[in-house]
Structures are given as C-alpha cells and as structure tokens.
Amino acid sequence: MRKRNSALLAGLLASALSLPVSPVVFACGESLFPVGKGLIFRSYATPLPGRILVVAHSPGALQMVEQLRAAGHDVQVVSEPEQIGASLGKADFDIVMSLFKQRQAVAAQMGAAGSAATYLPVAEHDSPEIQQAQASAPRYLSTDDNVKTFLRVIHRTLKDQQV
Predict the structure, then answer these.
(1) Nearest CA to 139 among 100, 82, 105, 106?
(2) How crowded is residue 74: how many other Cβ atoms within 10 Å of its Cβ?
(3) pLDDT by residue (tens digit) across 91-108?
C-alpha cells in the first residue's frame, strides 16, 4: 500500500510539473509584479528614454551621468561647452545640459549647429543663479538635486517635446 501511494504521489507530481503554466501569474495578488514579465533591477527606470548631451567634468557631474545612463537615457558627455557643436553635428539630441553659467557658450554652439534640442541649465546651489535660471528657463536643475529630480525634470522636458 505504501509503495502504491509513493507511486501515485510521484505520478501526480510529474503530471503537475508537466502542466502548462499561465504566462501571467501574480504573486500574493500583487498585479504590479507579474511573474515572468522581466522586472527591472535598478533604482530608477525612465519610461521615456532620451538622447542627452551633458557638459560635465567634475566627479559629481560624471556620477549623475552614470545614474542617468543606468535609468535608460542615452547620454553623451563633453568636458567643455565649445565641444557641443561637434557632438550636435554627429547626432541628434533631445536635451543639452550644462551649468547655468555656461549658457551663453552653449546657446552659441547650439545655434551654430542648428540644433532643435532643449537646453536644460543646472544652477549652482546657494547662488543667485537659481533665481536667474528660474526667470530665464522653463525648467532648470540645481547642483544639489538628486537623481530622482533630474529624471523627473528630464522626463517632463521630453514629454513636452512630443506634444
């Protein structure tokens, strides 16, 4: 009798393992995490990836660039505003980011290249630049903003370009 129960249990287990499994299975009733749908294992993931040209040379700026890349943006880096024109000539960018104090050099380079990219200034924290950036640009960032704020402002800028 015991041998027969073991054989029956083994047969049931084998048949259960051979049954097709629905591709959408929800864990604990949670519909946000369907099993088998490929979860993204990173801090932030952008729903609208963009091509971004960033003028950066400081360690903090380069770290932010890496975080933007990890979120899904295609980010190219130049170290000086004078290099923007060459990069804009090679590829189309959605956004150009640089320090607010570099805005005149950036505008000259973007104008010479005939770029339709949106300029997104980054103002120095605790400086009069914050008020100037706020008055002169529809959107701006601060050097003390976190990656979530950067991603939110970039997303809104990209969304506005689609309209």
Answers:
(1) 100
(2) 14
(3) 999 999 999 999 999 999
| Cβ contacts of 90 within 8 Å, gap of 6 or more | none
DSSP state of 1: -
pLDDT confidence of residue 28: 52
Tokens of 9: 């249990």
Tell me which residue has tokens 């099993």: 35
Q: Could you tell me the mean pLDDT of each successive run of 10 residues in the chain, 163 residues long?
A: 64 62 52 52 76 94 94 95 93 96 95 94 89 90 92 94 83
If 0-12 CB within 10 Å is exposed, 13-18 middle and 19+ buried, where does residue 37 land?
exposed
Under 8 Å between Cβ of 52 and 75: yes
Residue 45 DSSP SS3: coil
Neighbours of 47 (CB within 10 A): 10
pTM listed for this prediction: 0.71
What type of residue is 109? Q
Residues in the chain: 163
Q: How many CB atoms lie under 10 A from the CB of residue 155?
A: 17
